[in-house]
Each structure stands twice: as structure tokens, then as C-alpha cells.
Predict the 3D structure of the following.
Amino acid sequence: MLQSTELTVSIPPSENRQVGQVQWPKQLPPNPATDFATTRVKALSSPGEIRGWVKQHLPRSRRVLIFVHGFNNRYEDAVYRFAQIVHDSRADVAPILFTWPSRGNILDYAYDRESTNYSRTQLEEVLRQAARDPMVGEITIMAHSMGSWLVVEALRQMAIRDGRVAPTIRNVILASPDIDVQVFRKQWLEQGPHRPQLTLFLSQDDKALDMSRLIGGAVDRLGQINPAAEPYRSELEKAGVTVLDLTALQGGDPLNHGKFAERPEVVRLLGERLIAGHASVESKIGISDQLGIVAAGTAQTVGGAASLVGFR
């Protein structure tokens, strides 16, 4: 059963925080000047309340961003990470978070993987509700790590059930996708010819995906392939996939698994170009010397607070 909640997260001012950082409270109650703090939690118990939230927060662009977290992420981890992305990217969209029951333990990989399979019908329903809302003009889905598996499976399931992915779902962004690359080929093709535009954030030094590859029988994970090597380069180019290779960038965590949200230049790129619906990445952004670009839209924020709605 889906539960929906409106949350408002207070984010420290820029002089006390670097772009890409999530500053957890050191004590309770948190200090809003230095810590992320949840300032409002309200259950949305009816479809009318959810539509009311969408109407209040939908910008002129009529774009919605739906974020799906990854492996080893507790509910509060996902909320604060998404709030950080919403605030730092400054993308002109209404933010919706979909959470699934991760155990939040690095040793529970198999449990988390089963939890994504358990949750795919619920995610499909959230996507379908958003796509059917006449107020919503365009949907971008962004997923991290194991959440990418959940997103691709939900889209595949939607395509099988409805004959195609809902046309309002225009863009899919997969960051460090923890998916068997051979399985992904089949998942993506089975969505049919009218698939969303796909953007991949990859990093060949992703140590978390090294472990996943070991568990998965030494098959390459999508999030750590070399997109300049064959057969990947030709396949990605033929499919019209936008790929950003973050290998040259230093990660903010020892596993190099969260570069898409932790590096300021990448977060800004998310908001300015990709979440905003521009698939191409131009050199004027100023990071082309660090990003390997192989081919070629979270939130409204007011006064340092990000308001989002979460489904779980």
C-alpha cells in the first residue's frame, strides 16, 4: 500500500555548506544554520490532497522530477539526499521522491534487490498517476544505483501492460546504475520503440559496483562500463543515449558511488541542462575537460527550504 507524505527540509545557508554536501544533525534538535532539518511532515491521505500539492508546487514548466534512491539507503538518507539535489540543482520542477524498503545495511544486498522487485508495481502506479494528471506536462525520472533497476523494471512493466511507456515520461537519468549490462539491453528494448530519452552517469572507478559485479557473477554493471570502448560505444550511439563519464572526477565518498550528487559542477549540470529537458551537453558548461562526454528535469526552493512529496 502506497503512503504519501509532504516534507519540508531546511538547508543551511551557502556560507555554511558546500554544494553537494548533506550535513546531518550532530544533535537534536538540529541547528538549521549548520544542519539539514526536517521542518514539516504532513501525511497526504487522499488523491485530492496529492493533487493539491502538485498544483501548489508545479512550476510554469509543468515539469515533475521523480527520484528513486539506491542500495543501502534509509528513508531519511533518501529524503535528505533528494532535498540536497533539489536545492543545489535549482531545477525548475516539482520534486517527488519514491522510496522502497532498503534495510540500510551494506551486508543486505540480496534483501534490497528483492525489495526493488517487490516495489516495481507501486512505482509503476506512481508514474501512471503522474502521467495521467492533466496539470503535468513532462516527467523526468532520476534513479541512483540499485534504484535504476527498479525504474527500468517499472518502465518495462508499464510498456508491457499499456503497449508503451507513457508519453509524458520524456527523460530518464540513471546515475551509477547497478544493472547487469546484458539484462539492461533486454529491459530497454522491451519498452518498445517509443522510449524516453536516456542519460547515463558512469564512473569506471566505482568501487560499490565492483562489489556488485563480483556478487553478480563477474558480469559488467552498466554504471562502470567504458563508454568509449566497443561494443558499448556503437550501441549507445545507435540508441541515442547521452553518456557522461565521471571517471576523471574525484568522488566525495570512498566508493566513488555518489559523484552525480556530490560534485558541484555535476549537480549544476543536472539542473541547468538535463532535468530541464536538454539532452545535449555543451562545452560552455565548463566541465568538458573533466567529463568524458560520449554521446549526444528538482524543485522549487524558497529561502533555503526544499518541499517535496514522498511515496513509500
About this structure: The radius of gyration is 18 Å.
